[in-house]
Amino acid sequence: MKRVLTILFAIGFIVFLLAGGVLTAYAVGALAEEKLFVGASRLTNVIFLMLIFVMIIATMLTLAERKWSALMQDRIGPNRARIALPGLKNLSLAGLPFVAADSLKMLTKEDFVPQTANRFLFNLSPLLAFAPVFALFAIVPAGPSVTLWGQRVDMVVGTPDFGLLYLFAIASLAVYGTALAGWSSNNKFALLGGVRATSQMISYEVALGLSLVGVMLAFGSVQLPAIVGTLAAETGGAAAGQARYLWQWAGGAAGEGFDFGLPAWGIILQPLGFIGFFAAAFAETKRAPFDVPEGESEIIGYFVEYSGMKFGLFMISEFVEVVVLSGVTAALFFGGYHLPFGGEWLATQLKDSPLVYATLLGTFFWVKVLLLCFLQLLIRWTFPRFRYDQIQTLGWKMLLPVGLANVFISGALVLWDPSLRALALFGLLQIGVLMALSLSRKESAEPEHGPGHGHGALGHGHEPHGLPGGAHGHALPAHGHAAASLGGNTPAGAHAGAHPASTH
Amino acid sequence: MVPISYYLFLAAALFCMGMFGVLVRRNALVVFMCVELMLNAANLTFLAFARMRGDSIGHVSAVFVIAVAAAEAAVGLAIVIAVFRSRGSVNIEDIKTMKH
Amino acid sequence: MNIEQVLFGAFAFLTLLSAGLVIFARSPISSAMALVSTFFFLAGIYVLLWAHTVAALQVLVYAGAIMVLFLFVIMLLNLGDELPGSRLTFSRILGGGAAAGLFAVLALAIARVPGRVADLGTQQESFGTLKAIGASIFTTWLLPFEAVSLLLLVAMVGAVVVAKSRI
C-alpha cells in the first residue's frame, strides 16, 4: 500500500511540475511578446520547450530507465546514492542523487582521445549526433495557441510550410555522428558499429517516411499544427484536424453541453501507419531491440573509444531522441494536446481564463509524452534483441510493403469518403484484428513449434538453433504491444504479434 | 538585393570546380562526389533563373535533378562496389580492361 | 550592405571553400564530409533565392540519403588515403586549363544576363512553397514526374543487380 501511495504521489508531483513549467512558458511567452517584439515568444519557446522540457525529461529518463526497468524486473533499482547533509542522509530520494552523481562522473572523467584517431572528426561526431535529434522538436506544437493579455502565443518553435519534410531531413542527419564516431576512432569494433548504424538508418528512413504519408493524406496537410487541428470553440469555425469528431454522440457543435464521441486521432485513422512509424523511429533511436550498432555483448559499439562527457553526449542524445519521438508520435497519432473528448466543453467553460486552459492542455500533451516514453522503455526492457539480418528483413520486407499498401488503401479511402469515416472504420478493423491476434492464446499452437519451424508469414523464421521458449517471432516489435496497451491489457510479453505464424 | 548574376557566377565556379575534380581525381568515389557538385551547380542555376522570372518551373526542375542525382548515386555506387570486388581497387587508372 | 548581401557573401565563400576541400582532400571521408557541408551552405543560398522547399529537399535527399550512402560505401570498402602523386602532371594541367577556360566562357555569357528581377507581387506568399511546387508537379509536369519514378525504379533494380555478388 505504501508503495502504491508513493508512486501515486510521484505521478502527481511530476504532473504538478509539468503544469508549472507550461504555465511559466505561456506567461513568459506573452510577456516577451508584449515587452520585446512580435515573434519573441518563439524564442522563449526555444528555451522552454527544447532546453527545459526536452532536456530535463531526457535527463530524468536516464534515471527513469533504471527505476522503471527495476519495476519491470521486480527489483528496487538504484537507491544507494545519498546526499551527505543532515536530514537527507537516510533518504534515497527516489534515486535522484544518481542523476547528479552520473553527471559529475562524466564531467570529471579523463577525456581520452586515441592516438591514431582522426582528432577533428573524433571531437566533432558527438555534437553531430546530438544536435539533429535536439533540433527535431522545433516543429512539434506542445500546446494550444491562445490570446494571453492581448498577445498571441503559440507553443511551437517553428512552422515551416514543408512541415514534416523538416522532420525527415533533420532525422536523417543524425546518422553522421554515429558513422563518423565509428570511423574516426580508428578501431575495428567502432567501425563495425558505425557501418551497422549507417545501414540500419538508411533502411529505416524509407519506412519512416512512407508510414507518415497516410497521415498526410488523411489530414490533407504536412504541417504539424494543421494535423493536430483546432477546436470549434477556439476558432469559431468548424473543428479541424485531430480535434474534430468522427462520430459525435453527445453535446452540440460548440459548448452545448459536454461533448463526447470518437475523435479523429491518427491512431484510429492510421493504426498501420502508427506501427510502422513507431517501429522505424524506434530503430532510428538505436536502442534495444534495435541496438546492433551498440551491440553491448559483442562489439560494444561505435562509441567504444569515447569517454567522459563525449560519451555522455551520445548517451543523452539517445534519450533526447526517445522524448522527441514521443512528442512527434503524440502530435501525429494521439491528438497532440487535445483531450479525447470534452475538449469543446472545456474550451467554452474556460473561455475567460486562457492561461488556465492553455496550462491544462499543455500539461496533457506532456503527460501523453511521458506515457509514450514509458511505452518505449517497456518495449526496450521486454523484447530480446534482433539479429542483424532480422533488422534488415523487418525494414525492407515487412515495414516497406506494409507502408506502401497502407498508402494505397488510405488514399483510396480518403478519396472515396472525404469525411474520413470509411478510413476510420478500416482503422478500427485493423486495431480489432491486431488486438485479437495479440490476445489470443498460444497454447494450442505451441506443439507445432518444433525447431526450424519458420514464421514465414512474418518474413523471418526461427533459426534451427535459435532461442527456445519465449522468443517466438518478434517480427513486429511495436505491433502487439502498441495495440494491446491501447486496450489497457498487456499480454504475456513474448507471445504478442507472433500469432499469424501459427496458422500454418 | 543580390543581383542574379552573382548566383550564376557562383554556379559557374562550382561547376568548373566539379569538372576539374572529375578530370583530375583518380578515386572513383571522389569523382562521383565531383559529379554531384556539378549537378548542384546546375540546380543553383535553375533556382536563380526561377527567382529571376518569378515562376516555379525552375523549382520543379531542381526537384527532378535531385531525384536523378539519387538514382545516379545508387547505380554509381553499386558499380563502384562491383568493381572493388573484382579488382580490389577503386582507382580509375586500374580499371583498364576495356582499354587496348 | 544589407543582411542579404552579407549572407550571400558568407554562404558563397563557404560553399567554394568546402567545394575546394572536396577536390583537394586526400582521404575520401574528408571529401565526403566537405561535400556535406557544401550541400548545407548551398541550401542556405537556395533559401536566399526564396526556394526554401528545395533547400529542405536538398538537405533531405543529398545530405540525408546520398551522402550517407557514400559514407557507407567508403566505410564498407575501408578506403585509405590516396597516395600522393607528382604535383603537376599533364592531366592536371589539362584539367585545370579546361576548367578555367570553361569558367571564362561561362562568365562572358553570364555577364550578359539582364539584371532585372521579376516582382513576385501577388505570389509573394506562395512562391517556392511546397504547395506551389507540388501543384505544378502534379498538373503540368506529371509526365516527367512519372518518368522520374520509373527511372528510380530502374536504378533501384539496377543497383541491386550490379552490387549483389550472386543472385
Q: Could you describe the 3D structure shown?
A:
- The complex is a heterotrimer of chains A (504), B (100) and C (167).
- Chain A has 504 residues and is mostly helical.
- Chain A has one domain (2-83, 95-441, 456-461, 470-503).
- Chain A has helices spanning 2-35, 40-72, 96-108, 119-135, 164-171, 174-184, 188-219, 224-228, 232-235, 266-269, 271-285, 308-333, 343-349, 354-382, 388-416, 421-439, 477-486, and strands at 146-148, 151-153, 245-250, 260-263.
- In chain A, helix 12 packs across helix 14.
- The longest helix of chain A has 34 residues, at 2-35.
- Chain A is globular and about 70 Å long.
- Chain B has 100 residues and is mainly α.
- Chain B has a single domain (4-87), classed as Helix Hairpins.
- Chain B has helices at residues 4-24, 28-53, 57-87.
- In chain B, helix 1 runs antiparallel to helix 2 (28-53) and helix 2 runs antiparallel to helix 3 (57-87).
- With 167 residues, chain C is an all-alpha fold.
- The mean pLDDT of chain C is 86.
- Chains B and C meet through helix 1, helix 2 and helix 3 of B and helix 1, helix 2, helix 3, helix 4 and helix 5 of C.
Largest sheet of chain A: 2 strands, antiparallel
Shape of chain C: globular
CATH architect. name of the largest domain in chain C: Up-down Bundle
Per CATH, the class of the largest domain in chain C reads: Mainly Alpha
Radius of gyration of chain A: 23 Å
Outline:
The complex is a heterotrimer of chains A (504), B (100) and C (167). Chain A is mostly helical and 504 residues long. Chain A contains 17 helices and four strands.
What is the secondary structure topology, with strand pairs?
The complex is a heterotrimer of chains A (504), B (100) and C (167).
Chain A: H1 2-35, H2 40-72, H3 96-108, H4 119-135, E1 146-148, E2 151-153, H5 164-171, H6 174-184, H7 188-219, H8 224-228, H9 232-235, E3 245-250, E4 260-263, H10 266-269, H11 271-285, H12 308-333, H13 343-349, H14 354-382, H15 388-416, H16 421-439, H17 477-486
Antiparallel strand pairs in A: 1-2, 3-4
Chain B: H1 4-24, H2 28-53, H3 57-87
Chain C: H1 3-24, H2 28-48, H3 52-77, H4 90-110, H5 130-138, H6 142-163
Helix pairs in contact in C: 1-2, 2-3
